[in-house]
Amino acid sequence: METIKIGILGAGTMGKQLALLFAANNASVRIWNHRYQQNFQAEFERLALIQSRLGLLEKDKITAITERVIYTNELAEMSGCELILEAVKEDKVVKANIFKQLVQVVLDLRIIATNTSTLSITELASHTDIPDQFLGLHFFNPPMSMKLVEVVKGELTSDKTLQSALKILQLLGKQAVVLPETPGFVVNRLLFPMINEAVLLLSEGVADAKTIDSCMRLGANHPMGPLELADLIGLDICLSILETLVEETGDGKYRPAPLLKKYVRAGKLGKKIGIGFYSYRKRG
Ligand code: NAD
After folding, report:
1. Whole-angstrom distance between the N-terminal and C-terminal Cα of the chain?
2. The CATH classification of domain 5-180, taken from the options 3.40.50.720, 3.40.50.1820, 3.30.565.10, 2.30.180.10
3. Among residues 138, 141, 196, 240, which one is catalytic?
4. In this structure, are strands 148-153 and 175-180 parallel, antiparallel, or unpaired?
């Protein structure tokens, strides 16, 4: 990838991995988070090491990759970026506030993209004064290995913005599918009814988590079961997605399973926290 400057907003599960993906493809990356993360550097290097163990990047390139990523708490540092990709909490109020601040402090905005899993691109774009330069780029978790990116056009996204974004995805070697705005896009509209149904099966006592996941791995040839996947995504993100699907479509078939709500309220958010449907905490 030619050296371009990319901005990432949010240094959570997706933000860090997206920073790694772009830096591994030679981009210079600025990553912003609203709260200072003391362990950012260590966590980023740990992620890079995992990717190298998986054979997705060469170990001797990790230092150079890390040096291409600058962590900041100043939104103004996003100036000069070819693309600013937002990956903060799946909450439209939180995202709207960030976009409003961004347009105030960065005066040379080119493309703003959101990694939202299901929120309206047109509504998020309305919080910027450049909705024609705004679109959805829905990367999947983990972005280093997942080939697909759903490219979602808002009502006012210009063709120039779309083409520029597609060019960047091409440099990353990603497979883009261009979609009009629709709740859940394609993948999550199909995936989340399944995840929700798996939580319902669990709460009805039909089978335990391991059995439900095994059924889908062995019987439907899925690489991972729906409850493992929910833990990987984050149960708070899963709940937000289902709530948005209900809100946007009015269709009760997406209503979140009460057990999912209970887990989120209890802070059992999945792998990122160490506990969800499974425990990831080391014993002893
Ligand atoms: P996460 O919970 O891991 O990280 C959320 C980030 O938002 C953190 O950096 C946090 O500091 C920040 N944040 C929280 N409250 C904030 C506030 N009030 N103001 C500013 N920032 C705040 O979430 P994630 O899984 O990285 O998801 C980020 C985005 O990516 C979401 O829109 C999500 O739907 C989308 N996404 C997630 C996945 C997944 O598998 N987790 C996959 C594709 C897309």
Report:
1. 45
2. 3.40.50.720
3. 138
4. parallel
What's the pTM? 0.95
Per-residue pLDDT of 32-81, as tens digits, reads 999 988 999 999 999 999 999 999 999 999 999 999 999 999 999 999 99
Write the residue with the smallest CA distance to atom 1 of ligand 1: 12
* 117 included as an active-site residue: yes
- Residue 274's identity, in one-letter code, is G
Report CA(206)–ligand 1 centroid distance (Å).
Answer: 32
Mutate to test the pocket of ligand 1, among 93, 174, 237, 239 (most ligand atoms within 8 A of CB): 237
The topology under which CATH files domain 187-265 is N-(1-d-carboxylethyl)-l-norvaline Dehydrogenase; domain 2 (1.10.1040)
144 CA from centroid of ligand 1 (Å): 17
Q: What is the spatial order of strands in the sheet that 5-9 belongs to?
A: 69-72, 28-32, 5-9, 83-86, 111-114, 134-139, 148-153, 175-180
Active-site residue 115, yes or no? no
